[in-house]
Design goal:
The protein is an alpha/beta fold. Helices cover 41% and strands 16% of the residues. Strands 1-2-4-3-5-6-7-8 form an eight-stranded mixed beta sheet, with helices on both faces. The two termini are 30 Å apart.
């Protein structure tokens, strides 16, 4: 693994950090998987998945988004995307990074987005469908959800009020209670307030101990994120995703982000409605939010590999 930097797409001071896990030189790579991580985590948490994919012949990359991980550490803005329009800047960052990394290889590209990263992946595929069409061969959405635009628009107005009340870089207890604070409610009894992440206790403990995981994002970031969700969830926006793009959705059946499977099924139904022709969806019984870090992650890895293998047929 190598840790590298690239200047932000918008040209402001600072750098975006990304990780690259190349296939051993003795092997011919089968493809390139670019990972977009979730909210309040970072790309290093995907090292085990990357190692597995390397063994199967896939080159793997992942960045630490604005306000996350090494990128935030270097730029002094942990859990704060940007002072304005941070979500759209994150989408632009992804295209720039993909174009930069793609200049060094001609491998077919598969994007894998988890949680917030799944929405980032969809928005990137919508906004830059034409620019990605020559390279993109598959989209994987982990721990995702779907709700109609009005849900996110309404929530963004609450975030707007909280931003005005507290300041854009501040944290709102109300916004946290409406999101992460409610995610543990479905799990009884609980050992920690992060049990919703995974049923694997070691995964949860590592997440809690990680200074780059689990923090509360700023009111401005919530506002920008929710506005982005309202935009990308509109049927007309969903229809911008290539109809020919194979999409694989998977989630834990108990994942609160996906409404215990209900929102995941709605996402699959929406993609089917707008005409996506190759769509697969899997819910894992008993699974929490991070199926890639669940007690049955080996099964999840194998299922992902099986889907990737099907792309080559």
């Amino acid at each position: 693994m190598t840790l590298k930097t690239i200047a932000f797409a918008t040209g402001e001071p600072g750098d975006c950090y990304y990780r690259e896990w190349p296939v051993q030189s003795s092997r011919h790579p089968q493809g390139w998987i670019h990972i977009m991580h979730g909210m309040a985590e970072h790309s290093a948490r995907y090292a085990e998945l990357a190692a597995y994919l390397n063994q199967q012949g896939f080159h793997v990359t992942a960045d630490d988004h604005r306000g996350h991980g090494k990128t935030a550490e270097a730029n002094g803005n942990l859990y704060h995307f940007a002072d304005n329009d941070g979500w759209n800047q994150m989408v632009d960052d992804q295209l720039q990074l993909i174009e930069h990394l793609g200049s060094d290889n001609q491998l077919p590209l598969i994007i894998l987005g988890h949680s917030m990263g799944s929405f980032l992946a969809m928005h990137t595929c919508q906004r830059y469908a034409d620019k990605l069409s020559d390279r993109l061969r598959g989209l994987v959405l982990s721990g995702s959800n779907y709700a109609p635009p009005w849900v996110y628009s309404s929530a963004s107005q609450i975030a707007r009020v909280e931003r005005a009340r507290l300041g854009g870089s501040s944290v709102s207890k109300l916004l946290e209670s409406m999101s992460f604070g409610a995610f543990n409610n479905a799990f009884k009894p609980v050992r920690t307030d992060k049990d919703w992440i995974s049923s694997d206790t070691e995964t949860v403990d590592r997440y809690i101990a990680d200074p780059h995981c689990g923090g509360a994002i700023s009111t401005q970031s919530w506002y920008d994120f929710l506005r982005g969700l309202a935009t990308l969830s509109a049927p007309a926006a969903m229809a911008k995703i290539s109809k020919q793009l194979p999409i694989y959705i998977f989630s834990g059946a108990l994942d609160p982000v996906g409404g215990a499977g209900k929102g995941v099924k709605k996402l699959a139904a929406m993609l089917d409605l707008v005409g996506v022709k190759q769509l697969s969806c899997r819910l894992y019984a008993g699974g929490h939010h991070e199926m890639l870090n669940e007690t049955n992650k080996e099964e999840v890895y194998r299922d992902l590999l099986s889907w990737l293998d099907d792309l080559k047929r």
